[in-house]
Amino acid sequence: MDVIGYGTKKASAHLSPLKFTRADARAGEIAIEISHCGVCHSDLHQARDDWDNTVWPCIPGHEIVGKVVAVGDGVTRFAVGDRAAVGCMVNSCQQCEQCKAGDEQYCTGPKSCTLTYNGPKKPDGTNTYGGYSTGIVVREEFALTVPDAIQSTHVGPIVCAGITTYQPMKYFGLKEGQTLGVAGIGGLGHMAVQLGKALSARVVAITTSPEKTDDIEKLGADLVIDVNDKDAMEANAKTIDLMINTIPYKHDLNPYLPLMKSKSQIAVVGNFLGFDDLDTATMVFEHIGLTGSLIGGIADTQEVLELCAKHDVRPEIELIRMDQIDEAFERMQKEDVRFRHVIDMDSLRSDTSAAEKAETVDDPIRGEVVG
Predict the structure, then answer these.
(1) In terms of C-beta density within 10 A (0-12 exposed, 13-18 middle, 19 or more buried), how is residue 351 classed?
(2) Could you tell me which residues come within 8 angstroms of residue 18 by beta carbon, excluding any fewer than 6 positions away?
(3) Of 111, 110, 113, 116, which Cα lies nearest the Cα of 92?
(4) Judging by beta carbons within 10 Å of its beta carbon (0-12, 13-18, 19+), is residue 180 exposed, middle or buried?
(5) CA 13, 17, 361 angle in degrees (round to 5)?
(6) How far is the C-alpha of 257 from the C-alpha of 32, rounded, in Å?
(7) Predicted pLDDT at 370
(8) What SS3 state is found at 57?
(9) Is the pLDDT score of 371 beyond 80?
(10) Which of 52, 92, 280, 302 has the fewest CB atoms found within 10 Å of its own CB?
(11) Enoyl reductase (ER) domain location, by residue (predicted)?
C-alpha cells in the first residue's frame, strides 16, 4: 500500500507531506483506507518530542476510522467494504498475562504493545506511522467494529479520548449516584463528562477556563467549578468519589485534593511530566489514592464504542483539512478547540501538490502477527 502522510523529521519542524509504503495485509491483517483521523494532544507532544522519546520520522495519529480495502488470509471479523477503527495500538504479544486479561496496553512481551505510531512501547529501533496518512494495515485483533449509529467523523476521538477516560471509570467501578470529578475539559475531559453521565454519575467539571462554563454545561455536567474560585472549591470539599485528571502537562495537583472524599481515587490519564511538591500528607490522612491509567484494552475500547452508540455520546468536533494541522496544533496549545479537531483524509488524497512534494521516508515496521 503506497501511502501519503503528514509528519516531521525533527521537533522544530512543521508537519509536511511524506510518502512511504505499508506492506500489504498478511494473514490475519486488514488494510484500511483512512477517511478521518482525530487530533490528540499526544500527537502534539510526540511531534515536539516533549517526552524525549520520539522515534523519527514522526507521523502521528491514533484516532483512525476508514473502510476496509483488503483482508489477509484467515480474517473473520471484517470484509472488504466494512468500516473499521484503529486506536492507540496495532500489536502485542497476545500471550502474556496482561494480554490474556484484555489489557494489551500493559503487554509484558518482548516489545510490550506496538503503538499505532512511534513504534513499540519498549523501543527496539523500529518505527510505526499513524493515521495522519491515507491508509493503514493492522492485525484484525486490533481493529474495532464501528456501530452503525456513529458517523465516521465522530469515531476517532472515541477510540482514544473515550477509552482513556472510560477505563478508570470501569476499573474503579463508578456507580450510579456517585460523584465523578473531571479536571481539565478539553478533548479528553469533554468525553469524560458525557461518559460519566451515561453511567448515571453526578459529574463535576473542574476547569481553569470559566469562559467554557456554558459549553461544559451543555455536555451534561451537573456542576462546573473554577479551580481559582476559593469559595466554590471550599463549598464542594470532600464531595468527589473518583476524579479523572485529563490535564496534559505538569501542574499543581494540590488544589484538587480537598475536593476528594476519604478513600477516593484520582486517575491521571494525560500528564506524563509529573507533579511538583505533592501534598502527600493530605493523601495519607484522607486515604486518597493517586493512580495512572493508560488508554484501555481492545475489548474495553469496543465496549465504549457501543456505550457511546447506545447513549448518544459523541465528541464535539471541528473538521479540518490535513494541511491545516500546524494551525490545529497551535490552537490546541492555546486551548482554542471545542473540543476535538478531526482531519478529513479525503483532503490529503485530493491534494495533488502534497503528493508531488512528499519526501520519501523509510517504511514502517508493524511487527509480526503472533499469538
Answers:
(1) middle
(2) 4, 5, 6, 7, 57, 59, 358, 359, 360, 361
(3) 113
(4) buried
(5) 85
(6) 44
(7) 78
(8) coil
(9) no
(10) 52
(11) 13-343
Element (H, E) at 136: strand 135-139
Residue with cell 496482561: 98
Asked if 121 and 115 touch (Cβ cutoff 8 Å), the reply is yes
pLDDT (tens digit, 9 = 90+) per residue, 222-268? 999 999 999 999 999 999 999 999 999 999 999 999 999 999 999 99
pLDDT at 255: 97
**Coil, helix or strand for 91?**
strand
The Cα–Cα gap between 60 and 221 comes to 31
Tally Cβ neighbours within 10 Å of residue 39: 30
The closest of 195, 198, 231, 225 to 213, measured between CA atoms, is 225
Q: Enter the DSSP assignment of 306.
A: H
Average pLDDT, rounded, for the chain: 97
Structural contact between residues 362 and 77, judged by C-beta atoms closer than 8 angstroms: no
Residue 66, classified by CB atoms within 10 Å of its CB into exposed (0-12), middle (13-18) or buried (19+), is buried
Domains of the chain: 2-150+314-360 (3.90.180.10), 161-292 (3.40.50.720)
Name the phi and psi angles at 72, rounded to 5: -85, 170
pTM: 0.97
Do the Cβ atoms of 364 and 79 come closer than 8 Å?
A: no
pLDDT in tens, 44-73: 999 999 999 999 999 999 999 999 999 999
User: What are the two backbone dihedrals, phi and then psi, of residue 212, each rounded to the nearest 5 degrees?
Assistant: -85, 0
Q: What is the mean pLDDT of residues 301-314?
A: 98
